[in-house]
Design brief:
Largest sheet: 6 strands, parallel
CATH topology: Rossmann fold
Number of domains: 1
Strand content: 15-25%
Strand order of the largest sheet: 1-11-10-5-2-3
Helix content: 25-40%
Number of helices: 8
Structural class: alpha/beta
Length: 239
């Protein structure tokens, strides 16, 4: 766990460390939606970042998506494209948005096929970014969702709380990953962060993400305030 003043700066430093560790090989990344990653995307699209990053190493996927066109304001891919991807020389063949032009179930099946074509039948991401919602959801895995227990790689669950269908990778995929990183900031995340750590039997969706290497949590001080004690680190580089 890292408790920092600036979640975005710490997240970018961690990402740089993962890329450096790769030693020139491709780095597969599953991006997150939600508000917290937007600042990271904006920084990645800044002119100084464009010149510094080895864009040819990155292969991008999305952990979840809304079934909307890319130019819709709710599109996770659209948000990343507007703030970042349209500004950097990342080859289009290495960017894999969800096929939201298809019906949700068909989109989920197609995305599973894309994953396996790129990484094999047991796809292993080098880096996964995830958020945590106020009720403990992550990606589009909400409490009680059948997608939490499926053996499929992808799912298109109906989310009653949002009255809509979502597209999401499943815990099976996340738990195969080499490094999973949760990002949370703000007072409104304090209670759910506290529950995630203090109530192991709460059956929160975020608790279903249990890869072999323990997930990282990068929190600001407001989000971590509900924890009885927490470490403070200024060194987010992976070991």
């Amino acid at each position: 766990m890292l408790v920092v003043d600036d979640v975005t700066t710490a997240a970018l430093a961690l990402w740089v460390g993962v890329v450096r560790q790769a030693g020139g090989r491709r780095v597969s990344v599953a991006l997150s939606g939600g508000s917290t990653p937007l600042e990271m995307f904006s920084r990645l699209g800044a002119p100084d970042m464009v010149r510094q990053w080895p864009w040819e190493q990155l292969v991008l996927f999305w952990g979840d998506e809304r079934p909307v066109p890319p130019d819709h304001p709710d599109s996770n891919y659209g948000a990343a494209r507007e703030r970042w991807l349209d500004r950097v020389p990342l080859p289009a063949r290495q960017i894999h948005p969800w096929p939201t032009e298809l019906a949700p179930e068909a989109a989920a099946r197609q995305y599973a096929a894309t994953l396996t074509a790129a990484m094999g039948p047991e796809p292993v991401f080098d880096l996964v970014w995830l958020g945590v919602g106020p009720e403990g959801h992550t990606a589009s895995l909400f409490p009680g969702s059948p997608a939490l227990w499926t053996t499929a790689l992808t799912a298109a669950p109906y989310v009653a709380a949002k009255d809509t269908v979502r597209l999401t990778l499943t815990p099976r995929v996340f738990n195969l990953s080499r490094r999973v990183v949760f990002l949370a900031r703000g007072e409104d995340k304090r209670e759910i962060v506290q529950r995630a750590f203090s109530e192991p039997d709460a059956e929160l969706p975020v608790q279903a993400i249990q890869p072999a290497a323990d997930p990282w949590w990068i929190l600001d001080r407001a989000a971590a305030a509900g924890l009885p004690t927490f470490p403070v680190s200024e060194s987010p580089h992976p070991r």
